[in-house]
Amino acid sequence: MPLIVQKYGGTSLGSIERIKSVAMRVARSQNEGHRVVVVLSAMSGETNRLIDMTHQASEFPLERETDVVVSSGEQVSVGLMTMVLTEMGYRALSLLGFQVPIVTDSRFGIARITKIETERITRELDRDTIVVIAGFQGIDAEGNITTLGRGGSDTTAVAIAAALKADVCEIYTDVEGVFTTNPSICEEARKLTKISYDEMLEMASMGARVLQTRAVEFSKKYNVPLRVRSSFTDDPGTLVCKEDKDMEKVAVSGVTYTKDEGKISVVRVPDRPGIAATLFRPLTEEGINVDMIVQNISHEGHTDLTFTVSKADFKKALRLVKDTAGEIEAQEVLGDPGIAKISIVGAGMRSHAGVASMMFEVLAKESINIQMISTSEIKVSCVIDEKYTELAVRVLHEAFGLGKEEVVEEK
Amino acid sequence: MPLIVQKYGGTSLGSIERIKSVAMRVARSQNEGHRVVVVLSAMSGETNRLIDMTHQASEFPLERETDVVVSSGEQVSVGLMTMVLTEMGYRALSLLGFQVPIVTDSRFGIARITKIETERITRELDRDTIVVIAGFQGIDAEGNITTLGRGGSDTTAVAIAAALKADVCEIYTDVEGVFTTNPSICEEARKLTKISYDEMLEMASMGARVLQTRAVEFSKKYNVPLRVRSSFTDDPGTLVCKEDKDMEKVAVSGVTYTKDEGKISVVRVPDRPGIAATLFRPLTEEGINVDMIVQNISHEGHTDLTFTVSKADFKKALRLVKDTAGEIEAQEVLGDPGIAKISIVGAGMRSHAGVASMMFEVLAKESINIQMISTSEIKVSCVIDEKYTELAVRVLHEAFGLGKEEVVEEK
């Protein structure tokens, strides 16, 4: 019998009524002949409520104890779901992280799964039990409760699907799947039927927040087919899977953007070895992640170096860089928080020439100036003035034909 | 170093502020040179909130899953308390039922503790850690979460104190200790300095709801000195301990009452063997507990049989008894829910003659008719008309000199 792992997020579990409607969906999957494992997040709002309490209790809440408090949220949802399923006449059992067990390292709050014992789950599945597992939580070698970090329930689901060699891992959320771009700024946006792991990774890290990057990486590593779909409709959603021939037919699968970054330019730096290292060391020490970095060829022994950091880190990063600028004899440091990063993503770029230049032309036609460019195998990103974000997304979406019927469905 | 187990109930943990003030008290105990184990209930209202959710989810919530949901309440309070203590500069660690472990049988919702592993607790205490343990919860041999039933945190505390051979187990609540009677109906009521386990058992079962009967039984069995005190004041509270000579000096330690019962009389039953068995069998089958039972000598081959049941069971019991009455040829069945049971309790009764008759005289003087009487070694109970409850309590309290300075303090 095919094995399915279904993960339901907080918005799918926002009330007892929602839990009951999710239970019907779970039951239907079993009726249709699947063995079913369910992974649940905390009911919506619950994790925030618990985290707020830890912050009221302590200025710097102890990580071990934060995990003890916060993991109670999933504990409540699996208990409730299991009793609902039982009342509906299904055999169901809840398992917490320590009961599976889902073994992790001891990095409280950001733990990594090291091992999942499948024996208990398999035994229950063999008895036609619907196994309801608490997402987000695990246990370390000393028996301490750990959590996997925000959105960790996706990772739990994928890891369990991988461990059980499930046929598919369904991630239920409040959107119908992965879209070519954000439908709220481009009404032509269309749901994708299929997308590759790599494309999804580029989309996810750019703010298409339907799936945790880590969960996608995990699925890719263990080749677990993921289906992103809505718990509010019967739409089949988007399948995230290994790249296939169909995908190569399409040059670009989606347009994504983020306004969450700021740009810092270090102007006229003497072009000597070790300059970049000196500049970025203080940022690394403060835990600030640098995203795009662009350094041009040097003129008269000087170069300009520009990079982006998240808006949350922007002020701090600017101060640190200004402190270092004197040391490396840079002429000046400029900061600009008013930028957006627009990206086009597509596995087909590998086989389609001219994708990047078409992007530049489309933007030029609208007189949108490109401030920075960076490319990867399946993505081209441009930094532009923030105010052009929506316009850029719409014209790129149109130019790459993303509003049309999907090619992969035409086979 | 003396070892102290402190249990704090929900009202002592009603808010983050209350948790912080309890943490100060805990810290003070360690500063004073104690090794300290803390046992916590859920924050006040939390257990009810969780139970409500299970009832919204299911008409007959599965017991195993109810325990999963409900035990999350204590999980939150131990995590918060531990982070507060840590922030105050103390070494502290939370332990859930499964982490101690506190092993129980598998009777979900009403589990009994079968074993407490002390190794982990002792190791932590030896490092000067304040060990913060979740009350009310345990784990069975299969790794399922169990709970001990309402008020089970008292039992957890006493069981841990017994297992660790603690010098004292302090039960913190919102009252200052055990009183000679309910201060809200008798302003002369006085806090007792000391009371024996047996007296406490009689008081507790009669509605002096400061301590769970089961916790007192446990303390008696393992001879754990209990101190009932308030978390809102520095009053030393009431010590519950083995009976000592001082206690025998006092005939009566307290007057208790309950209005929670109803009376059922079966009139003119043929006095044959097996009548009582026939009468009570249906009640037992429905799980209805019978409290006082009085059967008088028979007249002309007939007898009257009267008993009390809780008000919650009263209607059902009356119906069942009426069904059986025909079968055993009783003349009629009378029900009266408007009664109160008044009791005087005192270890000293064993050595003081005439306590019961003094009680009857005091009630007679106020023209309060006694409907039923039952006695134990250290208690005399009378059923009277409910409307005389407060009057009876006050006159008995006065007559037995309970408002005066306590004799045990005069040594």
Short description:
Two copies of one chain form a homodimer. Chain A is of the alpha/beta class.
Features of the shown structure:
411 residues; VC0802-like; 13 helices; homodimer; 8-stranded mixed beta sheet; Carbamate kinase; alpha/beta; 20 strands
Please characterize this protein's 3D structure.
2 copies of one chain form a homodimer. With 411 residues, chain A is α/β, with parallel strands linked by helices. Among the domains of chain A are: 172 residues, Acetylglutamate kinase-like (Carbamate kinase); 77 residues, VC0802-like (2-Layer Sandwich). The two termini of chain A are 29 Å apart. The first copy, chain A, is globular and about 75 Å long. In chain A, the strands form 5 sheets. An 8-stranded mixed β-sheet of chain A has the order 3-6-2-1-9-11-12-10, sandwiched between helices. A 4-stranded antiparallel β-sheet of chain A has the order 13-18-20-19, sandwiched between helices. Chain A has a 4-stranded antiparallel β-sheet with strand order 15-16-14-17, covered by helices on one side. In chain A, helix 1 packs across helix 4, helix 7 packs antiparallel against helix 8 and helix 10 crosses helix 11. In chain A, strand 1, helix 1 and strand 2 form a beta-alpha-beta unit. Chain A is built from 13 helices and 20 strands.
Layout of strands and helices, then pairs:
2 copies of one chain form a homodimer.
Chain A: E1 3-8, H1 16-31, E2 35-40, H2 46-57, H3 63-70, H4 72-87, E3 92-95, E4 102-104, E5 113-116, H5 119-126, E6 130-134, E7 137-139, E8 145-147, H6 152-164, E9 168-173, E10 194-196, H7 197-205, H8 213-222, E11 226-230, E12 238-241, H9 245-249, E13 254-258, E14 261-270, H10 275-285, E15 290-295, E16 302-310, H11 311-327, E17 332-336, E18 339-345, H12 355-365, E19 372-376, E20 379-385, H13 389-399
Helix pairs in contact in A: 1-4, 6-8, 7-8, 10-11
